[in-house]
Design goal:
The protein has about 250 residues and is mostly helical. Among the domains are: about 55-135; about 155-195; about 220-253. It contains 13 helices and no strands. This is Outer membrane lipoprotein BamD-like domain-containing protein.
């Protein structure tokens, strides 16, 4: 190679110039062609008609919808994000992006993967149309969590968890579930030994103190009166039963 370079340098100036130009010109032409092709590929969108542009954006949106229905949420979000703010499809695309955490949460909820569902429901933005529904799911998941602990508990811990369920039902204005929980407590009380019944009677006294529904308190009093003789005949439960009945009657005056 060194010998070739020396040979070229030793040639007459005109011949050297011709040899160099014969090498440079094709290279410059090749570079120019490549540069032009690159510019054309990058700027192809500049020559896109408005109709073609709208069709392309519609295809992105439709692809996002297909992926969303197939539960391929990551790909769906990527497709929806291809729709720019100035497009008529932008608001719909944004709504679908905001819907993704909610839909993921529902999928996890149906699979009973409640921890994963909670994380997704908490990620639903306030501006999303599904926000209120996501909050309802979160409250339901919290009830399920407490229920699971309740089923595995005993004694005072069991009553404490039942109190939490009662409070959640009140917060959710779920009168039907509240009735079911109170009935559950009554059944457990009636099926217990006297010492445990005494603790349940104390639990009901405290629970009724926080009850704002006159109907619920009236129903509790009626059921207590049906079993009052049984509680009064047992020294262990007599005082607690009398105190509960007295408190209920006083609250109904």
């Amino acid at each position: 190679m060194l010998q070739q370079n020396i040979a070229v340098l030793s040639l007459p100036r005109t011949l050297k110039y011709n040899l160099i130009m014969n090498w440079i010109v094709p290279v410059r032409r090749l570079l120019g062609t490549l540069l032009l092709a690159l510019l054309l590929s990058n700027c192809s969108g500049l020559f896109e008609s408005e109709a073609e542009r709208q069709q392309r954006l519609a295809q992105h949106f439709e692809q996002g919808m297909r992926l969303f229905e197939q539960k391929a949420y990551t790909g769906a979000v990527e497709s929806f994000r291809q729709v720019p703010p100035e497009s008529a499809l932008y608001n719909r695309s944004l709504a679908m992006i905001r819907r993704v955490p909610y839909q993921r949460g529902r999928d996890f909820y149906e699979e009973q993967r409640y921890a994963d569902a909670s994380r997704q429901f908490r990620a639903v933005p306030v501006a999303a149309a599904e926000y209120d529904s996501a909050q309802n799911y979160l409250r339901e998941i919290e009830m399920i969590r407490i229920e699971q602990q309740y089923r595995e508990s005993r004694g005072d811990r069991r009553r404490e968890l039942l109190s939490q369920l009662v409070q959640k039902s009140r917060e959710n204005s779920d009168a039907k579930r509240l009735d079911e929980l109170l009935e559950r407590g009554r059944k457990e009380m009636m099926g217990s030994m006297p010492a445990e019944q005494r603790d349940w009677l104390a639990w009901f006294r405290k629970t009724m103190e926080g009850e704002t529904s006159r109907t619920v308190r009236q129903q509790m009093l009626e059921e207590m009166m049906q079993n009052f003789e049984q509680f009064a005949a047992e020294p262990t439960t007599r005082a607690a039963a009398i105190e509960l009945v007295a408190n209920l009657k006083l609250s109904l005056q």
